[in-house]
Amino acid sequence: MMLDSLTDEEKAAFASICRLTEHKAGDLIVTEKAPGDTLLIIRQGNAEVRKYIAGSSFRKLKELKPGDFFGEMSFLGRSPRSACVVATVPTEVLELREKDFTVLTKSYPAIGAKIYGTIARELAGRLRRNNDELKKVLSLFIEQE
Fold first, then answer.
1. What's the whole-model pTM score?
2. d(CA 99, CA 66)
3. May I ask the CATH class of domain 8-144?
């Protein structure tokens, strides 16, 4: 979970720079290809990460629960959103803007190290799972030859 490694004081400082948003079931929290610079954390509720394939057809990539985060690629690289995130039940989300986080980490460098470490571990895990999935797909093509 994103905030598990923070002390109570660090959690309070972190929360003070976040904006809380509320979403109804079915609401789009982020839209694929939209610009963004925020990291988002599920505070309460659940959501799905979806990748649209063709038209309205999509693949569910992940289910998000309280404590899970998303939007880290846009947060880190100021790149467009890579997928949609849809609330599946009423959901509260903490939004952290990159520029606010930069200011916070000047006063609390340990928060920056802990949050970036959590993001790095999550991205490494996703890369490993994607590599495994790619290997499976490629093996199907090799077997057909």
1. 0.85
2. 24
3. mainly beta
